[in-house]
């Protein structure tokens, strides 16, 4: 696997993922996600809660060797090193969490409340991403996108509970999860990415992942 990618995504896992997609095709890892937009007491957006459920192939590889006592259960202490490793690697990728306010990128802080659980044969990572500057949705449009810029990892929202609101959202505001736009150019891009191998990396000025990311917006009546 190319350098800089999650340390917890070992190259051995690619043999598993290859069975689910064309050889060498992007993406290689699939994540089902849920998010919360967190409002503070003043009605400002202060953080985003993240919950990612990994595909079975990745989970099998990531969990290998972590059941130290051999009891068949992965308790929090056994999963803690994997959580720490994930977050250390995600730091270089902005934690795959991109916030814009009136189309301007917003800085995010170091994640808190991080942890992983393995239940019902599913591996789930959760953490909270604080915003460096809380945002007033009544004065500008808030847009959240979750994606891997290199489209090595594909993120899809849970169909039943994709995004929710926690805290004091102003009554004039509304949460919306918008569909991924589709057109011929996107189809061509997806076909091109499907031909790329695991070591391929896009040019620095290309951001393919954002093309396939569902925007989450908070829009308010003025």
Architecture blueprint of SSEs:
Blueprint: H1 13-17, E1 29-39, E2 45-54, H2 56-63, H3 76-90, E3 97-101, E4 104-105, E5 112-119, E6 122-135, E7 142-146, E8 153-157, E9 163-166, E10 173-177, H4 184-193, H5 208-211, E11 216-220
Parallel strand pairs: 1-8, 1-9
Antiparallel strand pairs: 1-2, 2-6, 3-4, 3-7, 5-6, 7-11, 10-11
Overview of this structure, please?
With 222 residues, this protein is α+β, with helices and mostly antiparallel strands. It has one domain. It is 19% helix and 33% strand. The protein contains five helices and eleven strands; from the N terminus they run αββααββββββββααβ. The strands form two sheets. Strands 1, 2, 5, 6, 8 and 9 form a six-stranded mixed sheet that branches. The protein has a five-stranded antiparallel sheet with strand order 4-3-7-11-10, with no helix packed on it. Strand 5 and strand 6 form a beta hairpin. The N terminus is likely disordered.
What's the overall average pLDDT, rounded?
81
Radius of gyration: 18 Å
Structural class: alpha+beta
Overall shape: it is globular
For the sheet with most strands, the description reads: 6 strands, mixed
β content, as a range? Answer: 25-35%
Total helical segments:
5
Q: What's the count of strands?
A: 11
Number of domains: 1
Summed up:
By secondary structure, this protein is an alpha+beta fold. The chain is 19% helix and 33% strand. The termini are far apart.
């Amino acid at each position: 696997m190319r350098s800089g990618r999650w340390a917890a995504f070992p190259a051995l896992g690619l043999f598993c993922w290859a069975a689910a997609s064309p050889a060498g095709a992007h993406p290689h890892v699939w994540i089902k996600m849920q998010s919360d937009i967190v409002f503070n007491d003043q009605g400002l957006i202060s953080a985003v809660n993240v919950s990612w459920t990994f595909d079975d192939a990745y989970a099998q590889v990531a969990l290998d060797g972590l059941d130290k006592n051999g009891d068949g259960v992965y308790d929090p202490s056994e999963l803690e090193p994997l959580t720490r490793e994930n977050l250390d690697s995600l730091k270089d990728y902005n934690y795959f969490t991109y916030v814009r306010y009136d189309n301007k990128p917003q800085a995010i802080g170091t994640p808190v409340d991080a942890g992983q659980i393995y239940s019902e044969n599913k591996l789930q990572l959760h953490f909270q991403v604080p915003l460096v500057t809380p945002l007033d949705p009544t004065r500008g449009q808030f847009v959240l996108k979750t994606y891997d810029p290199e489209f090595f990892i594909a993120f899809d929202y849970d169909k039943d509970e994709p995004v929710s609101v926690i805290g004091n959202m102003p009554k004039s505001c509304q949460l919306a999860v918008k569909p991924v736009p589709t057109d011929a150019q996107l189809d061509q891009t997806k076909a091109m990415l499907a031909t790329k191998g695991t070591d391929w990396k896009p040019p620095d000025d290309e951001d393919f992942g954002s093309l396939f990311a569902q925007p989450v917006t908070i829009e308010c009546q003025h």
